[in-house]
Amino acid sequence: MTGIEMIAQERERQVTVEGYHSDHDDEHFGGELALAAACYAVPMPIYTIEFCGDGDTHPVWPWGEELQEKRDAHPAIRRLTIAGALIAAELDRLIRASNPIVAPHFPPPLCGVRCKADGDECNLPAGHGGKCAHDGITYSGCFKE
Question: What is the model's pLDDT at position 29?
């Protein structure tokens, strides 16, 4: 079996066995499917530094620890197969979202990072990586779970 066949088979399994169909995928409009795919594709956990909060590193993994432990238990070929299927799911979601006839009408998730100057939450889209209007600090990777 080729890699592309393995990925197609895994995507079919995700839909038919796990129930991760298009309606489910459309709820993940904040880039979670792509982030999960990236986490599955790399051989070790990916971390980011939150400059806006405690300064610690935090996993990029978009879902709970239980699923992260399940991911870590898979061998490399299985992880890459799942990563490919998640990328296919994210591509399909983006294609649907770009079509106004079938696009879900979810509001974009907001950043929610707290400004150090006034404590207000950022109301820009999540992951904007832009400069805070109040304290002038550039925040990046501010995806909310």
Answer: 83
| In the chain, % of residues over pLDDT 90 | 33
Domain ranges of the chain: 3-98, 107-145
Say which amino acid occupies 103: A
Over residues 113-141, the mean pLDDT reads: 55
Residue 128 pLDDT greater than 70, yes or no: no
DSSP code string of the chain? --HHHHHHHHHHHHHHTS---HHHHHT-TTSHHHHHHHHHHSSS--EEE-TTTT--EEE---S-HHHHHHHHHS-HHHHHHHHHHHHHHHHHHHHHHHSTTT---PPPPB--PBPTTT-PBP-SBTT---B-TTT-PBP------
